[in-house]
Amino acid sequence: MKKEPKKTFFDRDHLLHKIESEHQIWDVLIIGGGATGLGVALDASSRGLSTVLFEQSDFAKGTSSRSTKLAHGGVRYLAQGNIKLVFEALRERGLMLKNAPHLVSPLSFIIPSYRWWEKYFYGLGLQIYDWMAQKFRMGNTSLLRRDTLLKQMGNLNPKKLNGGVQYYDGQFDDARLAVNLAQTSIEQGGVLINYMKVNQLIKDAKGKVTGVEVTNVETGKTYSVQAKVVINATGVFVDDILKMDNPGANTLLKVSQGIHLVLPQSFLKSEHALMIPATSDGRVLFAVPWHGYLLVGTTDTPLDRHQLEPKPLKEEINFILETLKDYLKEVPTEKDVLSVFVGLRPLVLPENKEVGTKEISRDHKLKISASQLITITGGKWTTYRKMAEDTVDQAITIGDLSTGPCQTKALKIHGYSNAPAEDEAMSFYGSDAKGIAQLKIENPDLDYQLHPDFSFTAAEVIWAVRYEMARTVDDILARRLRILFLNARAAMKLAPVVANIMAEEMDKDKDWTDGQIRDFQSIAKNYLVDPTLGEVLASGRLQKVE
């Protein structure tokens, strides 16, 4: 089966060789490979700055793969009066669609009206939202009659329904965009490597940060890497790096947790998304069609500590299911949940630290420490590009770097394609779909379906290993193919299949394969609503619970 692949820009060993052999002082060194760090790496490398990024796990392993998958201006922030953020996010939403049309698309949202005034109130607000988008408008807000609305959304609760509002926002695949951002930055000359954990900051005699000590998680080998500017873009972990710089540093963030439930799309019976504008906790709730399933979220739960694999709380699951009861005729229960995933939000603490997390602004914040460590945090996926531009502008000043203006407003993201996909399931690969098709031609034994509910083949696993820096079964099933996020049981069943394909491609032994299966099952059981079922699945007694 295995044919020796051609070396590519995205070969991890090739990138590690650059770290080992060049011994250069980089212009910009970035800690963190989520949306923010990847955006900074792309901005810096596209300006011609020598750029290196280290991520302790996989790209977008944390928050950046666990969003509501919306490229949006933020209707909630408009209601809060944060006009500046909404203007900025709507502009950035338009640039995302322009530069990555294979991953970003307009989506119609419907707000049902159950009180006489709601459709007029929300309709007026959303017309303002349209106006604020200016040339980046994705569609026009309109009021819907009751009968029209029930035709468009077949499972909507008709009791007391008097119509609704239809508006447009953007939808995207977050983890896939993260991978494509990494690829684009590498194409621009950047060096971005996953599974590289920063252990400590290196400082000169004056206390200025001049680099990092970083360990290759896979081999245990440690490197000292020098840079003119070091940027902390670690999301919910920024305080850890700040305390690495200064043990007495004040806490910058308040972390909150949000969960999403994934259900069969039949619970909405619509190609439109449902937006619930005011839940009992004061948030908005979305039910969004995504990859043939229905994604519902999100919650807002303040946390005192955070971890790389956060777990859903029973009350969060109950909150979403209870909220849906008021809006759907056929109501889902726990047994209908195919997957539940959890994301953490890095919210910058305001002066009044007692404010609730849902009231904390999603504006980003740049902090310059006395050591000249730059920290960028806050914000949201939609504004990643603007956050990166502001950060690199600051880095140029701090490091006295010589370069030109930002290039990312019109920079096409890897995979860019405006052409309609021949295979809808392959659409998020964009222009790379041709490469996968060619791989199947060259290796016909890779062209078999991995699971009856998903069209992915073994070729996509090989592609992710060779060209997308996937290193683990979790990388493949969670962030390259997204199966763990869509159907956790299917992902658990697939783990041994994927591990064996990867092992042959990567020349790994049985111990590695068994370890990968064990590690993935441990992660995946937390994506099931019933954790005891996860323990049964992880033990291999799959047939007894199907």
UniProtKB/TrEMBL annotation:
<dbReference type="Pfam" id="PF01266">
    <property type="entry name" value="DAO"/>
</dbReference>
<comment type="similarity">
    <text>Belongs to the FAD-dependent glycerol-3-phosphate dehydrogenase family.</text>
</comment>
<keyword id="KW-0319">Glycerol metabolism</keyword>
<dbReference type="InterPro" id="IPR006076">
    <property type="entry name" value="FAD-dep_OxRdtase"/>
</dbReference>
<dbReference type="GO" id="GO:0046168">
    <property type="term" value="P:glycerol-3-phosphate catabolic process"/>
</dbReference>
<dbReference type="Pfam" id="PF16901">
    <property type="entry name" value="DAO_C"/>
</dbReference>
<dbReference type="InterPro" id="IPR031656">
    <property type="entry name" value="DAO_C"/>
</dbReference>
<keyword id="KW-0285">Flavoprotein</keyword>
<dbReference type="GO" id="GO:0006071">
    <property type="term" value="P:glycerol metabolic process"/>
</dbReference>
<dbReference type="InterPro" id="IPR038299">
    <property type="entry name" value="DAO_C_sf"/>
</dbReference>
<keyword id="KW-0560">Oxidoreductase</keyword>
<feature type="domain" description="FAD dependent oxidoreductase">
    <location>
        <begin position="27"/>
        <end position="353"/>
    </location>
</feature>
<feature type="domain" description="Alpha-glycerophosphate oxidase C-terminal">
    <location>
        <begin position="423"/>
        <end position="510"/>
    </location>
</feature>
<protein>
    <submittedName>
        <fullName>Glycerol-3-phosphate dehydrogenase</fullName>
    </submittedName>
</protein>
<dbReference type="InterPro" id="IPR036188">
    <property type="entry name" value="FAD/NAD-bd_sf"/>
</dbReference>
<dbReference type="GO" id="GO:0004368">
    <property type="term" value="F:glycerol-3-phosphate dehydrogenase (quinone) activity"/>
</dbReference>
<keyword id="KW-0274">FAD</keyword>
<dbReference type="InterPro" id="IPR000447">
    <property type="entry name" value="G3P_DH_FAD-dep"/>
</dbReference>
